[in-house]
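Re: beginner question about structure tokens

> Can someone show what the tokenized structure looks like for a real chain? I only ever see the sequence side.

Sure, here's an example I had lying around. Input first:
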Amino acid sequence: MPNLKWLLSGILTAGLLLASNPVVAVPEIQHWRTANGVPVYFIAARELPMVDAQILFDAGSARDGERPGLAMLTNSSLEEGAGDWSADVIADRLERVGARLGTSSRRDSAVVSLRSLTEPRYLQPAVDTVARLLKEPTFAPEALNRVRQQMLTALQGRAQSPGAIAQDAFYQALYVSHPYGSPPHGTAASLNAITRDEVRDFHRRHYTVANVVVAIVGDLDRSGAEQLADALVGGLPEGETIPPPPPVPALTASQTLRIPHPASQSHLLIGQVGISRADPDYHVLYLGNHILGGGGLVSILAQEIREQRGLAYSAYSAFSPMRQAGPFLMNLQTRNDQVDTALEVAQTTLRAFTTDGPEVQVLEEARQNITGGFALNLAGNRNLANYLGVIAFYGLPLDYLENFIGVMNGMTLEQVRTAWQRHVQPERLVTVIVGGEPVPLAAPTQPDS
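And the corresponding structure tokens:
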């Protein structure tokens, strides 16, 4: 455990440095394509002899089709065997050179990540290992069943968690039959039905040159980064570009779902369809949401729900943009006997913010908080790699990081108010309440406008 006094001192020092030097040194993003046409995004970070690489495929749960959980099962099984290597051999190869491999599956993307020292005797074996499991995963029946059982066990845990129940119900109610409504973790029925052939076919169609981008941050020059990218994805098949998910239909009515659960607190999720990652209003909505519920205890939601009324320990809101419109969501937990009061306060707060917008002083404080903390958000190769992965996967401008503070500083109060009213409709909300006694489901109500 780190020394607490040292940790606090470091945080204070960082804060003083940021306050005295508002100009943030943003690293340059370089961009090119590999010999076989894969887009590569690279940031040279020479402070530590390490490299972080993310390989992002258009292979998230939105591609599951009739088999929820297929994308995650495929992604999670990659490191279970490749060519004539077993899972133990792969793990041993990475452990011997101190490299770390990660896999994750989201609604839009499936990611394989690598962290390694850059000295060739460590980096090369790690890269060879990742390249092989991307190109030649075996999906051996026993390994596939092992991962399947792990996912089924995780599903059992989610079925007992009020937070997970609320999240799954919210996405299903919000997206209905849209691919974003497919549960990324799958269902027991779908996981048990997925065959090895279906996993192999999913990998064959999605883990291709046409559906991948690479993000690299680390102690390499341009030539070294080019060699690394070529080595990672040079052996992938060309494939065909997968069409984007369809647009998300807007809500036409409010809906409230009450799901009983024997917990002492109820989980409340309140929201609607938000925006895509490419929406030009993203930054202004980000600033507005920081004021409403994204700024921690000083946000309006936290003040109204926690500080003034003591209804919840925390309350927050967020836009989660994806390739198509992701959700806008308010989230809180409260005692079962306070659910209706907390729900009314959250809805009233959202309506007032949408109608009136923030005050000038509050807007300036939020702006300063965001821009003042920007350098800390970029600190460390892993944080940079995560930012770069988003830029790469969603095709954001190369000067995105460079222009972030300028864009934030240029926004006006009227822009925030107008964008919020354009995208947020408080009379059209999906509300999910998990906890308390069973209550009949409320019938959908038609909006006033």
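Each token stands for a local structural state, so reading them left to right follows the chain. The mean pLDDT is 92.
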